[in-house]
Amino acid sequence: MISYPFVDHHGPPKVNCWQDPMNPAKWKEEHFVIVSLSGWGLLFFSGYKFFTRGKGKKEVVIFCDLYCLCSIQSSVSID
User: Fold this and answer.
1) Per-domain residue ranges for the chain?
2) Is 32 within 8 Å of 24 (Cβ atoms)?
3) How many CB atoms lie within 10 A of CB 20?
4) Which single residue of 28, 32, 69, 79 could bond 14 by disulfide (Cβ 3.0 to 4.6 Å)?
C-alpha cells in the first residue's frame, strides 16, 4: 500500500448509513445524498396526495356478484 504524505484524513471514518442510522454526520456522502433526496421526495409526494385527495370527480361503484343477483331475483315473487 502506498502512503501519500499530503493526504490527511480529518474526522471520524465514514460508514454506511445502515451501520449507524442515527448519526448522519458519519455517513458516506453518497448515502447521505440518496437518503436526503428520498426523504424530500416522500415529503413532497405525500403532501401532494394529502392536499389533492378531495378534488376531482367522485365515482361510486356498487359491486354485486352473480350470487347476489340470483338471490334477489328468487326472492321477488311475481303475482
Assistant:
1) 11-50
2) yes
3) 14
4) 28
Q: Is 56 left (phi over 0), alpha (psi -120 to 50) or beta?
A: left
Write out the three cell numbers for 72.
334477489
**What is the reported pTM?**
0.53
In whole angstroms, give the CA distance from residue 43 to residue 46. Answer: 5
Dist. CA 79–CA 29, nearest whole Å: 81
End-to-end CA distance of the chain: 99
The pLDDT > 90 percentage for the chain reads 48
- At 73, is the secondary structure helix, strand, or coil? helix
**Residues 24-42: tens digit of each pLDDT:** 999 999 999 999 999 999 9
